[in-house]
């Protein structure tokens, strides 16, 4: 695996909400075909991390490259902070400040164009990075078929006929082709989530992000959604899944990540991850969730 | 009293006043409501746009606008606009209608904003996550859902506006001018038939008819929208 180049690369990703630092430097290389399960206690930043990958949350610092291109880079913020900290001292070293400022400006010259380009192409980026939400977020005023075809047609990825044909194929795959013309509020949670997965797939994404896709479901409906996800994984879809389903992490994922306190504490293949955890907090976490 | 009502209703001149008042009240309300809707929609959209360096100034302007026009009496606004800001001869009635429109816009913008923000923010996120931009998501996902919440609130707004327009006569109303509305008609009738209860009941019924017809229209629209959703 490692001889290939990672197609999604995250370096030292930081995210702050007001004063609360949620991500404190996350590094991750994702290769084509990876199925990565992200687990961790609630509030550890796993959802925020996922949302940073398609910029639903804007990271504060770090670097993200996608398909070999840097799409997000912000390191100048560190220099800015150092400059601020220095300025608060009474008799600060002017030359040191000058040096920091020079580095800051040099970085800004590199990073600003990347940021500008990303602001323009953020929607294109999101078309390649699909997302499935915990609360499904289907559009209640549109039929299932319209839910699926709206974005591909609107964004001129396909004609209406192509999109509908593709939607029907995908619906058939998840066993819901008879639901094409109904409205989402007539569906069960499991059906809604399967439709949401189809909606994301209709855009032909390069990678799919799952934000706790089964957490809002009745226990008896979890299986049908996991089955769809397992099939996707088998077909070679690259997936990053934030989940509490240890079974899925064990059986389907090829890499499992434990996040805590805003950083990745442990990463391993599922077998070693569950049988031989190293991190103390992870041992504690696993003993609680696996019983 | 009933005798007076009957006498007023059988006086052709008085009937003419009532008819004129009815028509002018409707015209004033409809034009002001149209101004209010357009203005309110624009202001609401500006208010909910994501903040960045381009939207910051318009956002402040909209905030100031709603604060001032919702925070001061409409009669005061009417006098300032008609006798100070637009003190152009012959422009008085239009300035008055404009004032009602601008005043209504401030309230309507809040109704629309509330209707839009009542939509779960997951809807915007889902639209954006699919790669649609803010405007596309707003138009295709958020607004169609928000309309159902907005229509009843705007209906209320227009009913309130209709009744507020009754002060338009304060800037001067003579028969034949747009400012001669139902309230002005009541005042004029009073001069020939000095029984305010009689003229008041007649004009009050006219207001009621308009408001009730409008209420039915709003209810019908609401029902239609609900049916679309199933």
Structure overview:
- The complex is a heterodimer of chains A (291) and B (230).
- With 291 residues, chain A is of the alpha/beta class.
- Chain A contains ten helices and ten strands.
- Chain A has helices at residues 46-53, 76-88, 94-128, 144-154, 160-173, 189-201, 219-234, 246-251, 270-275, 280-290; strands at residues 8-17, 20-30, 35-39, 61-66, 69-74, 129-132, 207-211, 238-242, 255-260, 263-268.
- A six-stranded mixed sheet of chain A has the order 6-7-8-3-9-10, sandwiched between helices. Chain A has a four-stranded antiparallel sheet with strand order 2-1-4-5.
- In chain A, a hairpin with a 2-residue loop joins strand 9 and strand 10.
- In chain A, helix 4 (144-154) packs across helix 5 (160-173).
- The relative contact order of chain A is 0.15.
- The mean pLDDT of chain A is 92.
- Chain B is mainly α and 230 residues long.
- Chain B is built from nine helices and no strands.
- In chain B, helix 2 packs antiparallel against helix 8 (182-192) and helix 6 packs antiparallel against helix 7.
- Chain B is elongated.
- The model of chain B has no long low-confidence stretch (mean pLDDT 93).
- Classes of the chains: A alpha/beta (291), B mainly alpha (230).
- Chains A and B meet through helix 3 and helix 4 of A and helix 6 and helix 7 of B.
Task: Please outline the helices and strands.
The complex is a heterodimer of chains A (291) and B (230).
Chain A: E1 8-17, E2 20-30, E3 35-39, H1 46-53, E4 61-66, E5 69-74, H2 76-88, H3 94-128, E6 129-132, H4 144-154, H5 160-173, H6 189-201, E7 207-211, H7 219-234, E8 238-242, H8 246-251, E9 255-260, E10 263-268, H9 270-275, H10 280-290
Parallel strand pairs in A: 3-8, 3-9, 6-7, 7-8
Antiparallel strand pairs in A: 1-2, 1-4, 4-5, 9-10
Chain B: H1 2-9, H2 12-48, H3 56-71, H4 74-85, H5 92-117, H6 121-129, H7 134-164, H8 182-192, H9 196-229
């Amino acid at each position: 695996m490692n001889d290939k180049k990672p197609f999604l690369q995250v370096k030292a990703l930081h995210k702050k909400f007001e004063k609360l630092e949620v991500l404190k430097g996350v590094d991750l290389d994702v290769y084509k075909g990876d199925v990565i399960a992200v687990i961790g206690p609630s509030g550890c930043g796993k959802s925020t991390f996922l949302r940073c990958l398609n910029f639903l949350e804007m990271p504060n610092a770090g670097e993200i490259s996608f398909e070999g291109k840097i799409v997000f880079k912000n390191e100048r913020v560190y220099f800015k902070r150092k400059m601020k900290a220095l300025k608060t001292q009474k008799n600060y070293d002017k030359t040191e400040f000058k040096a920091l400022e020079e580095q800051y400006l040099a970085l800004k010259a590199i990073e600003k164009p990347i940021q500008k380009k990303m602001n323009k192409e953020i929607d294109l980026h999101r078309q390649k990075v699909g997302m499935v939400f915990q609360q499904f977020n289907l559009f209640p005023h549109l039929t299932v078929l319209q839910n699926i075809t709206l974005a591909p047609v609107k964004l001129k990825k396909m004609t209406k006929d192509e999109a509908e044909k593709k939607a029907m194929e995908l619906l058939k795959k998840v066993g819901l082709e008879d639901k094409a013309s109904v409205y989402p509020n007539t569906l069960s949670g499991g059906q809604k989530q399967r439709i949401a997965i189809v909606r994301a797939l209709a855009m032909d994404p390069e990678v799919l992000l799952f934000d706790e896709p089964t957490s809002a479901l009745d226990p008896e409906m979890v299986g049908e959604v996991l089955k769809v996800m397992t099939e996707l994984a088998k077909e070679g879809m690259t997936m990053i899944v934030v989940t509490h389903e240890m079974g899925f992490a064990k059986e389907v994922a090829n890499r499992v990540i434990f996040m805590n306190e805003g950083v990745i504490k442990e990463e391993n293949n599922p077998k070693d991850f569950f049988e031989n955890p190293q991190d103390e907090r992870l041992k504690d976490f696993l003993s609680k969730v696996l019983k | 009293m009933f005798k007076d009502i009957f006498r007023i209703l059988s006086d052709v001149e008085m009937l003419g006043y009532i008819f004129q008042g009815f028509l002018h009240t409707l015209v004033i309300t409809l034009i002001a409501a149209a101004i209010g809707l357009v203005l309110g929609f624009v202001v609401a959209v500006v208010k909910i746009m994501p903040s960045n360096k381009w939207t910051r100034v318009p956002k402040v302007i909209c905030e100031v606008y709603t604060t001032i026009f919702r925070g001061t009496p409409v009669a005061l606004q009417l006098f300032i606009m008609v006798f100070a800001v637009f003190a152009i001869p012959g422009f008085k009635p239009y300035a008055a209608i404009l004032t009602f429109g601008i005043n209504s816009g401030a309230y309507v913008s809040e109704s629309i904003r509330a209707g839009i923000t009542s939509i779960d923010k997951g809807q915007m996120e889902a639209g954006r996550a699919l790669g649609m931009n803010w405007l596309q998501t707003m138009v295709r996902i958020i607004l169609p859902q928000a309309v159902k919440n907005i229509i009843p609130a705007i209906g209320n707004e227009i009913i309130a506006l209709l009744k507020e327009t009754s002060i338009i006569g304060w800037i001067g109303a003579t028969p034949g001018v747009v400012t001669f509305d139902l309230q002005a008609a009541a005042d004029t009738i009073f001069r020939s038939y000095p029984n305010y209860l009689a003229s008041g009941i007649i004009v009050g019924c006219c207001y009621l008819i308009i408001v009730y017809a409008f209420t039915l229209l709003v209810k019908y629209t609401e029902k239609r929208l609900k049916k679309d959703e199933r």
